[in-house]
Specification:
By secondary structure, the chain is α+β, with helices and mostly antiparallel strands. 38% of the residues lie in helices and 26% in strands.
Length: 156
């Protein structure tokens, strides 16, 4: 991981920066993705990211959210519901629990996936992989006072 990414991750993990940046990053990412026809994302130069398409658990409406992802060599992804360390699980994670069939837009490709919530033992074993890409990522659990949901997205 290069110095810029390390500095960025360190800044995001600091509580004041996290609270200031949280309401800005997702809308900016979504805006850039839409106006560029799926070519640009604010976070993409530093952090692997995708756009997750789910079906709303309560509404049945298709939802989209840009997320940091952890791509695997087999074409699958890990995503974690850190929600910037907030106490509530992100809505998209509830959508995946209700309907695990989803799609991701990654590197200009739309991929149909099936989401699987990792059970506690597998989640524990996966954290080192996640923190290899995003150091101190698990620290979000301390401020959130909850276990962060980690999903494995497998192409279908």
């Amino acid at each position: 991981m290069n110095r810029t990414v390390r500095a960025f991750t360190a800044a995001l993990m600091r509580s004041p920066a996290r609270h200031v940046l949280r309401p800005l990053i997702t809308p900016l990412d979504r805006f850039l993705f839409q106006v560029s026809g799926g070519r640009w994302k604010l976070s993409a130069p530093m952090i692997p990211s995708l756009v997750l398409y789910t079906i709303g658990a309560k509404t049945g409406i298709r939802r989209e959210i840009p997320l940091m992802c952890f791509p695997q060599s087999d074409g699958s992804f890990y995503i974690a519901g850190s929600n910037f360390g907030l106490e509530k699980h992100p809505a998209w994670s509830g959508n995946l629990l209700a309907n695990p069939e989803a799609e991701v837009h990654y590197r200009r490709r739309l991929i149909a996936v099936r989401a699987r919530l990792l059970p506690p033992d597998e989640r524990e074993a996966t954290w080192p992989t996640l923190e290899e890409q995003w150091p101190h990522y698990r620290d979000y659990e301390k401020t959130a006072h909850r276990d962060i949901r980690v999903f494995h997205l497998e192409p279908r």
